[in-house]
Amino acid sequence: MDNIAPWLKDGCSLSTQSPLYAPVAHVKVQDIIEPSTKVWNATLISNLFDHNTSQLILNTPPHPLVHEDKIIWKAEKNGSYSVRSAYRIFVTEIADNSHLHVPGKWSSIWKLKVPPKIRNFVWRVCRGCFPTRARLSSRGIHCPNDCFLCGTNYEDSIHVLLECPGVMQAWWERRKRRNL
Fold first, then answer.
1. Structural domain boundaries, residue 14
2. 46 part of a folded domain
3. Are 116 and 174 contained in the same domain?
4. What radius of gyration, in Å, describes the C-alpha atoms of the chain?
5. Mean per-residue pLDDT for 67-73?
6. Residue 22, domain member (yes or no)
7. 98 pLDDT exceeds 60?
8. How far apart are CA 53 and CA 38, in angstroms?
9. Looking at the 3D structure of the chain, how many domains does it have?
10. 68 lies in some domain
11. 93-119 burial, b for 16+ CB within 10 Å, e for fewer?
12. Cα–Cα distance measured from residue 138 to residue 101, given in angstroms and rounded to the nearest whole number
């Protein structure tokens, strides 16, 4: 019996992990269907399972086009396994990536009508992923925490973008060139 797929009516499944079903763990769905008529073999089912489980199986209509029992990968429409779909399931259903979700309207950044590198830059600054020395140090990369340009202050995003005298000088020079 399938120990994962919910193949029974109302989305139920039989768990082969239960000692109750251990003797029938090798039995496939095709083994309990009459091959000629494609209906459940009620006698065999009642001999293999307890009354409640037998009724659950017998109340589940077998698919009329079943020709053979086969494994189907639920994440793909064609039923075939792919690493891509397994990764997608892992990321969405299994892995705890809640620490990556930062509240905010991040989609508005990606809608800005600016070059992609600017959108990426703004997103990195807003998310706290901008690779300043303070950020690199917090991620285990050994580097000095003082600013590369001015050498005196703690190099975080605020300092690099707004407070550093070297950066401020670059902003002013850029502004002067634009006004000429």
1. 9-58
2. yes
3. yes
4. 31
5. 71
6. yes
7. yes
8. 20
9. 2
10. no
11. eeeeeeeeeeeeeeeebeeeeeeeeee
12. 19
